[in-house]
Design a protein that fits this description.
alpha+beta, eleven-stranded mixed β-sheet, 23 helices, 22 strands
Length: 818
Amino acid sequence: MSFAADIRYAFRTMKSNPGFTAIAVSALALGIGANTAIFTVVNAVLLKPLPYPNAERLVRLGRKFPNNFGSSNSIPKYMAWRHNDVFEAMTLYSDSGLALNLGVGDRPNEVKAFTVSREYFQVFGATPFRGRTFTEAEDLPDGAPAAVLSYRLWQTRMGADPAILGKTILLNKRPYTVVGIMPQGFQSEDKVDLWTPLQADPQSTNQGHYLSAAARLKPGVDIEHARAEMKAVGEQFRRANPGWMDKAESVGVLPMQESMVGDAKFQLLVLEGAVGFVLLIACANVANLLLARSAVRQREFTIRAAIGASRGRVLRQLLTESVMLALLGGVVGLVLGTWGVRALLGLAPGGIPRITDENGVTQAPPLDWHVALFAIGVAALTGILFGLFPALHTSNADLAGAMKEGGRGGTGKRHGLIRASLVVLEMSLSLVLLIGAALLIRTFVGLRSVNAGLDPHNVLTLQTSMAGGSYPTTARVDAFSTLVEQRLRALPGVLGASTSILTPMENDVDLPFNIPGHTPAQGKWEGDEQWRSISGDYFKVFGIPLLRGRVFTDRDKGSSAPVVLIDERMVKKYWPHSDPLGQTIVIGQFLGPQFTDSPRQIVGIVGSICATGLEDGKEPVMYVPQSQVPQGITDLANSVIPLSWEIKTAGDPLAMRAVIEREFRAVDGLLPISHVRTMEQVMSSSISRQNFNMTLLTVFAGIALLLASIGIYGLMSYSVEQRAQEIGIRMALGASQGDMLRLIVLQGLKLAGLGVAIGLAAAFGLTRLLGHLLFGVQSSDPVTFAAVAAVLATVAALAAYFPARQAAAVNPTVALRQ
């Protein structure tokens, strides 16, 4: 009954002080809303279990090195790893998701497909809704083409036809028999429309690493047991196949969810920590408000104590009020967080695991009970956190002292010290966030200023899948690309057209090479560098300069002498004191028959580009003509990598999209065209994660700075009000307005200085956690630390200046009369 009375009294108190309530609820709603928005993403990405039965038993296998985990695997390694006692099933699959054309007609439907080994569905615990999955015969080389459809594809494209099983569909003009339909809700790591058999050769000697491997632990087997077992299996493979594993390599086993999340986990936790700081600052602000308000209410609670109210009773009433304030802030914060997560993900780069759709668009996770419970829990904890100390202070009433004060609200030095300490806390937390944001801003600016070595302006990029039976050979792929390039160049406004195995700054293909007559310093390869097959006007399209020799011409065909171009970085790394022109290299030697290549003569040296991204794309690159790509690599590329196109235009490339696509369809009406973007969009995408981190941390730091400045302003204003008599006496004794102005401003700067000192020490330790998110700047960069400290001191001085003007305007006569 008394608790209900406390709640009613708390509501009356909030209603009678609408200004105080609005300020406190707004500050808390801001902090709780930001935390709710980030937690919504954290919950969807990190905490929510994978949508598979017994998902905790799913693991990913890969190559473990001392400092990283490589998730790509070779077929021979996978075949060896299958001989173990810890997994009930293992699967090998390509998770790149090829875009294919389904059906026939002028406008065939584009679908996304995974190629998987037959154990894939067993590993992920899926039973077909209709039909079956792949048989062992279908999963062998030259097996019958088969397809398993997703429930969504069956519903939307097949009209939910139950008779589709056993029928034939066309994928890139190749017939596939539909053998099964997966149940509603089942999806791969990326959302796909259908699955086809991988058909890997069990006797393969292909050492290329381009496939993913997953497994399901046997019941009762933990991951540490699996790691020990697979390490032993890896050593057996090393002994049986000397040179097929790196010296520092072993078999790695990671929980599937951890592998899928990747480095997004650390970035989300950094953002969660940042909004935690914002909430702490909001709590400190509200605690300061409550302490100021307690001075006004001190006499009220002293009288309560005098008429018999116990300290516990007063404490409970005050905590009830603070918790009610926090819960109201939590409700508003939950609404702000629900809206905020959409705004947050509107800034997010595509590719955040588990919340990115099949088109690469980040989707806001729906509000669920976990998020609602989190918001309520944070609100309740916040109410106790910011309300407990003021409540303890206020409930410890000094009856005689308070009555002597006559209700003036005097609280003494201890009260002032507590409020000043809270402001120092706000300033130090704000400084940490501001320094983190400044470091990320400098990282983003540094990445934007990197010389990529190519001109991205007015270049349209797109991809076409060459899977299926239409372009089975290198010669057919080359003839097709040559014809399309000729048609594109004939278009008004097109300045050049080319193809490549990958668009610059997206993914990588690296191959080892040897220099005939030269013994490698260690291992069996001279080096392992980026490899690109290109055609047409590639160097012209991107403005990559020819430094020496020549570029490829129409005479560099499959029947002519094999040639290669290398970039400037490769020259400096492998021929620092000699001329590589005219020398030969052998690419892909010892990798297996698929990569067997003839010795190639170096005919030219071109400028270096950031081939794999602005941040880490400083690797050397070697280029070969598309018409001279070994057939094994063409087979492999057709199955897992779409062909990339680059078209240089005189004006806006997107304005020519429809005309360009028309030329493709004039050559092949069933060709699937996907990922149409400008090169500038590709470059922006390569640093979108850094932009996202920078933007959010800057927003959170700005909110923290605003709250901290409000805190110091409030403290100085309250101090001026409480010291009005002292100020009046000082001025009556001869102090000038300038003296009062300096006195109050210096008081604020002392608090800011202490907060800056504590914040600098904390930032020096905490910003080291940002190390691998930074580029071109050290986590302890002195310029950044000094600049941010100066900005915070300036803001603190401004926040103290206005209360100081109020102090300077005090009328000594009026103050002394009061």
